């Protein structure tokens, strides 16, 4: 259809608003897209996150159905996605991807991946979230739903123009079929983009069925005009069907390597970035033949992206496309770490069997969609065996059972950084229990120095206040149905197969983590337990914990300036004087500040809480403070629920540690 005919049709459109006057040079609007914190995720077909920015967690609930959760409300944003291998593997099979607002949270994005026939199928995908400051639009059946567009025109079935407040003719466009709210897109469809047919301020969009026929369907549109060095590398390429580079941002060259196969080289490494491409005309023409586009990192170059364009049935075929890469990261001052500290009461059945209590915890995580980065557990059973024979629980059964219940409730596969136990208790029927730290590997990596890399301290049982290497409890007799979970216990080979990569002193266990998206920023988690003291002392001297932490800092210092958070102490603060603020002020907890404790002295001396190191004492880039604190479980009488619903005799404490510049 000629442009003149399209313009005439536009005059009869039900919705028509003239674009701003043309003639001004292309420029970024105030508050450019790149000036915002980047939110994106690259995921495998099975829902495992490979890399991300701003992601809290990703859940695959069934074949082809995923939900990504970010650290902020994204319900007012635009979601574009593409099928793409996360690494340098083969370009994945042709497929479709659809987006919508989260079905579980306003911080979520719902994603479906489908085969070329429209059936739900697991496929690797790459998702970008465009929020305030970027050129973006969500279009539904009634027109513009949200975004920064100034006007919208529907020319007819499946033909639209989205107009922005500045010249976008030199920009790159990516468009994804997606529901404007939190619904579903029931009918498979394709979306294509081109330069504006009404002028340089517009983006022309067509939506079609898989056979190529025009059909109305909602879509999400994002526009990239130029990169901004303040947030990291971003780039784009607008490529014709024969492999000609029409325009780009940070592109060195483009080569067509075969039918429907292209290589795009950028001026910077893009292996650790997100890549989303759309079939789109490089000018303001039309895309007559429907097609799909998939991406992967180039096999031999860190600056290259492999792009394949295909017909809807998967056959390689030349198509014009527009590619966007984003290497930006969420701003440091937006980062937070969430911690749930709780006593799981060993095998004591006062508050119900431990299996039931673990089930309550997992159910709370599932119902509230709360996924802490760290679970710091006290009195965690490792195993209990009777001298007459038989074990219940078997090795790691309590830990693995909790991990399995959490996975069932949330889809998140926690790992165990450590399970540190001392000597057994309960005499003839020994119970081994201690301190465990579980972490969400979608958010954190365990970078604790492994045994053998440091040589300080003494054997675990000799000097209780000296840091020493300590093995996690051996996973030699786990329940048969969870034997594979032994591989989720971080370890390295030493004297036993499951020698844990952590430090331990009698009252504390130590692990260090890095945020996945900001390697190698590290976080300490120290689980405090009761500290033996001299009989003449007035009470436990928790300053010794800080002394031990100082030794660990000297033995394994982080890279200068690389730390985001000071050390975190989370766990049982038993036998305290029930006046945490005073104890911090008077130096009992030297170098630490209160992050989360019950608001009033508890009835018992069994106190679970979270402390955070003072910035002036530790090489942290930011200070940190606790916020959004909850004492759990809630409901019923008392601060932490009635007795039948309790997880333990302690309150559990959940808090988010937010960096404060």
Q: Please tally the β strands and state the result.
A: 38
- Neighbour order of strands in the largest sheet: 2-1-8-5-22-23-20-19
Low-confidence residue ranges: 1-36, 454-465, 493-499, 529-540
Distance between the termini: 56 Å
Largest sheet: 8 strands, mixed
Classify the helix fraction into a percent range: under 10%
Average pLDDT taken over every residue: 80
Could you give a quick summary of the protein structure above?
Helix content is 9%, strand content 36%. The chain is mainly beta.
How would you summarize the topology of this molecule?
Blueprint: H1 3-11, E1 39-43, E2 49-53, E3 55-62, E4 65-70, E5 78-84, E6 96-101, E7 108-114, E8 125-130, E9 135-140, E10 143-147, E11 151-156, E12 159-163, E13 172-177, E14 190-195, E15 202-208, E16 219-224, E17 234-239, E18 245-249, E19 251-258, E20 261-266, E21 274-279, E22 292-297, E23 304-310, E24 321-326, E25 336-343, H2 354-368, E26 374-384, H3 397-410, E27 415-421, E28 431-439, E29 444-446, E30 468-469, E31 503-505, E32 508-515, E33 522-528, H4 543-555, E34 568-572, H5 580-585, E35 592-596, E36 608-613, E37 623-632, E38 652-660
Parallel strand pairs: 5-22, 25-26, 33-34
Antiparallel strand pairs: 1-2, 1-8, 3-4, 4-7, 5-8, 6-7, 9-10, 9-16, 11-12, 12-15, 13-16, 14-15, 17-18, 17-24, 19-20, 20-23, 21-24, 22-23, 25-38, 26-28, 27-28, 29-32, 30-31, 31-32, 32-33, 34-36, 35-36, 37-38
What does this structure look like?
It is built from five helices and 38 strands. It has 661 residues and is mainly beta. Strands 2-1-8-5-22-23-20-19 form an eight-stranded mixed sheet, with no helix packed on it. Strands 29, 30, 31, 32, 33, 34, 35 and 36 form an eight-stranded mixed sheet that branches. Strand 14 (190-195) and strand 15 form a beta hairpin. The longest helix has 15 residues, at 354-368. It is elongated and about 80 Å long.
């Amino acid at each position: 259809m000629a442009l003149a005919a399209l313009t005439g049709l536009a005059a009869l459109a039900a919705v028509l608003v003239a674009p701003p006057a043309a003639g001004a040079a292309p420029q970024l609007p105030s508050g450019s897209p790149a000036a915002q914190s980047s939110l994106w995720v690259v995921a495998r077909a099975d829902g495992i996150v490979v890399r991300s920015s701003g992601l809290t967690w990703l859940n695959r609930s069934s074949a082809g159905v995923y939900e990504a959760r970010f650290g902020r409300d994204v319900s007012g944003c635009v979601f574009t996605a593409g099928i793409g291998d996360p690494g340098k593997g083969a370009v994945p099979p042709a497929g479709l991807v659809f987006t919508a607002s989260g079905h579980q949270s306003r911080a979520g994005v719902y994603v479906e991946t489908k085969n070329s026939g429209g059936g739900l199928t697991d496929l690797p995908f790459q998702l970008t979230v465009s929020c305030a400051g970027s050129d973006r639009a969500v279009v539904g059946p009634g027109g513009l739903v949200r975004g920064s567009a100034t006007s919208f025109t529907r020319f007819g079935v499946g033909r639209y123009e989205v107009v922005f407040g500045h010249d976008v003719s030199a920009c790159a466009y990516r468009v994804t079929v997606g529901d404007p709210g939190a619904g579903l897109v029931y009918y498979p469809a394709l979306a294509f983009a081109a330069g504006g047919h009404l002028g340089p301020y517009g983006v022309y969009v067509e939506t079609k069925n898989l056979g190529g026929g025009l059909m109305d369907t909602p879509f999400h549109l994002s526009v990239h005009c130029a990169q901004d060095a303040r947030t990291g590398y971003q780039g784009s390429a607008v490529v014709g069907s024969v492999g000609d580079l029409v325009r780009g941002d940070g592109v060195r060259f483009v080569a067509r390597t075969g039918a429907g196969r292209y290589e795009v080289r950028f001026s910077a490494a893009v292996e650790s970035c997100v890549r989303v491409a759309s079939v789109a005309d490089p000018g303001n023409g039309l895309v007559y033949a429907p097609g799909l586009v998939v991406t992967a990192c180039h096999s031999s170059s860190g600056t290259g992206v492999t792009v394949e364009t295909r017909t809807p049935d998967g056959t390689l075929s030349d198509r014009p496309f527009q590619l966007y890469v984003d290497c930006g990261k969420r701003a440091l001052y937006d980062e937070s770490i969430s911690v749930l500290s709780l006593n799981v009461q060993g095998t004591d059945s006062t508050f119900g069997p431990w299996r039931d209590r673990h089930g309550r915890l997992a159910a709370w995580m599932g119902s509230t969609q709360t996924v802490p980065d760290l679970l710091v557990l006290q009195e965690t059973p490792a195993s209990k065996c009777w001298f007459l024979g038989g074990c219940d629980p078997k090795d790691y059964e309590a830990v693995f059972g909790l991990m399995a219940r959490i996975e069932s409730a949330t889809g998140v596969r926690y790992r165990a950084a450590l399970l540190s136990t001392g000597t057994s208790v309960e005499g003839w029927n020994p119970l081994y229990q201690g301190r465990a730290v579980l972490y969400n590997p979608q958010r954190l990596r365990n970078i604790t120095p492994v045994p053998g890399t440091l040589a300080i301290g003494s054997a675990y049982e000799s000097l209780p206040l000296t840091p020493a290497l300590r093995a996690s409890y051996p996973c030699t007799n786990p329940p048969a149905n969870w034997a594979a979970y032994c591989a989720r216990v971080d370890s390295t080979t030493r004297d036993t197969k499951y020698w844990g990569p952590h430090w331990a002193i009698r009252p504390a266990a130590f692990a260090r983590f890095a945020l996945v998206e900001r390697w190698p920023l590290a976080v300490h988690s120290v689980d405090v337990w009761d500290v033996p003291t001299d009989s003449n002392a007035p009470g436990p001297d928790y300053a010794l914990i800080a002394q031990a932490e100082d030794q660990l800092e000297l033995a394994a210092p982080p890279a200068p300036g690389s730390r985001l958070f000071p050390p975190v102490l989370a766990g049982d603060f038993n036998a305290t004087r029930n006046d945490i603020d005073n104890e911090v002020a008077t130096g009992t907890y030297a170098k630490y500040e209160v992050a989360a404790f019950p608001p009033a002295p508890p009835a018992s001396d069994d106190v679970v809480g979270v402390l955070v190191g003072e910035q002036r004492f530790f090489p942290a880039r930011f200070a940190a403070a606790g916020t959004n604190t909850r004492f759990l479980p809630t409901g019923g009488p008392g601060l932490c629920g009635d007795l039948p619903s309790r997880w333990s005799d302690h309150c559990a404490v959940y808090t988010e540690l937010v960096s404060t510049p």
